[in-house]
Design brief:
alpha/beta; Rossmann fold; five-stranded parallel β-sheet; 20 helices
Length: 471
């Protein structure tokens, strides 16, 4: 399996290990597999009833090439999910006729990002050890990626990790999950701005070739292909539990950065029988507007009760553009240049038709999320977080009798106690993983959204020897 950049048309390809260690491609694009591997009906049938870790290892094996043997992937997957709190790892809960919730919050940081980062952390560690290298992880977070990345890499000798979050724009518990990590290899930065500012800083530092090589920059948010590939596994797991490949399954995905729902698109491209992929947004509805009209127009980021979706520029959207454009790298570059210059581009014709055939979309403002939290609580006695509530609100409008609808529940309700209390008058019980953070000291540096200052911070805090270039 070889990989190409979204901004190239043919030419040089790289290995899975290269894509894993690099993050973004040198030309500013994102890596995609040169072709989609096949997940045929026989393979799917063979995975039915298997533990989640076995499904994840089988899916990842289709993308890793020679980087990891099947046996090593099974070991990595078993280690990755051993610490999850539910025996099913990603259990399905029925909310109503043909409507299901997939709980993706039973990992160490109580959010769906654990599913990919627990695996990617171990894979990255193994790849670095093979090369005798160290790395500096640099990532932006809108809430959950940062905590999951820190949990995956805290205390590791070969890795320093620098996480940017928008100051005052994540929940208190999301912040504490990052800033209470005491390990010296963990560095938290609160950026004066929104998530898009944080993401722009990360892209700028990765574009600095000298800095990238000097400190060994690596990415673990969803611009790293391995993250997306690992997330495709829970779509496969849910679909098998509900009858695939014998019948199609639909999914509704609360998303801001497009990585989570793009993983569903990947599973479908591989052969999983997915009838509908529904994008659920909050007030920051650039993705819903795109699916409806083809217009991708950057706007102001609004603060909402679902902060992980408070995003206007979805970094993974570039991968979809490559698919919609038939892997025409020049066209993708032109769209992304237009977005950077004008803040907008428009898809029309065959590209828009393909997008609308592949995705549906809807939005849920704060009032709709609160009402949905209350309704699910009254009907089932289950608490769902504001992101999951946005998904359920949209899923109900797109459900059909032809296929079970699975809504992805991306975070534990206890991470958003104020919103839950506002919706139902009860504060969720604090899981032990979170309760112990309340009295823990925080370690965080406040910086403006300035490339030069962040670059100095990274150089000052990350004392690393000369590193081998990734070839």
């Amino acid at each position: 399996m070889r990989y190409i950049s979204t901004r190239q048309s043919g030419g040089r390809t790289v290995s899975f290990e290269h894509a894993l260690l690099r993050g973004p491609a040198p030309d500013g694009g994102l890596y995609l597999p040169e072709h989609w591997p096949a997940l045929d009906a026989g393979t799917l049938e063979g995975l039915r009833g298997k533990p989640y870790a076995e499904v994840a290892a089988a899916v990842m094996a289709l993308f890793t090439g020679r980087a990891f043997s099947r046996a090593r992937l099974r070991e990595i997957a078993a280690e990755s999910y051993a610490g999850f709190d539910h025996p099913a790892t990603a259990p399905l809960v029925q909310l109503g006729p043909n409507l299901w919730l997939q709980e993706l919050f039973h990992g160490p940081t109580l959010a769906f990002k654990d599913f990919a980062l627990q695996m990617v952390g171990r894979m990255l560690d193994a790849a670095l050890a093979r090369r005798g290298r160290t790395a500096t992880i640099l990532a932006a977070t809108s809430g959950d990626t940062g905590a999951a990345a820190i949990e995956a890499f805290r205390g590791r000798d070969a890795v320093s990790i620098v996480i940017l979050h928008p100051a005052g724009r994540v929940s208190e518990m999301q912040r504490r999950q990052m800033t209470c990590a005491p390990e010296p290899n963990v560095h938290n930065v609160a950026i004066a701005g929104d998530f898009d500012d944080c993401q722009a800083l990360v892209k700028a530092l990765f574009a600095d070739a000298a800095l990238r090589d000097e400190v060994g920059l690596a990415a673990v948010n969803s611009i790293n292909w391995a993250r997306v590939a690992a997330q495709a596994a829970y779509y496969v797991h849910a679909a098998l539990a509900l009858g695939a490949p014998g019948r199609p399954i639909s999914f509704t995905v609360p998303t801001g950065n497009f990585g989570n729902v793009y993983a569903g698109h990947v599973a479908r491209q591989m052969g999983l029988p997915v009838e509908r992929l529904v994008v659920a947004t909050n007030r920051n509805d650039i993705l819903a507007r795109f699916v409806e009209s083809g217009l991708y127009a950057r706007g102001r980021v609004h603060r909402t009760l679902s902060p992980s979706m408070d995003i206007q520029v979805a970094s993974n959207f570039e991968r979809l553009l490559a698919d919609l454009s038939g892997r025409d790298g020049a066209a993708v570059r032109a769209f992304m240049d237009r977005l950077a210059r004008d803040g907008v581009f428009q898809l029309t014709g065959a590209r828009l038709a393909r997008a609308q055939a592949a995705f549906a979309a809807g939005r849920a403002d704060d009032e709709a999320c609160l009402a949905t939290i209350a309704d699910v609580w009254q009907a089932t006695g289950r608490m769902i977080d504001p992101h999951g509530a946005a998904g359920v609100h949209v899923a109900r409008r797109h459900a059909s009798p032809s296929a079970p609808m699975v809504c992805l529940a991306t975070a534990h309700a206890a991470k958003f106690p104020d919103a839950i209390e506002r919706a139902i008058g009860i504060r969720p019980a604090m899981p032990p993983r979170l309760a112990r953070l309340a009295a823990s000291p925080e370690r965080v540096t406040e910086l403006p959204a300035d490339v030069a200052q962040l670059t100095r911070f990274v150089r000052d805090r990350v004392h690393a020897p000369q590193r081998e270039r990734v070839a």
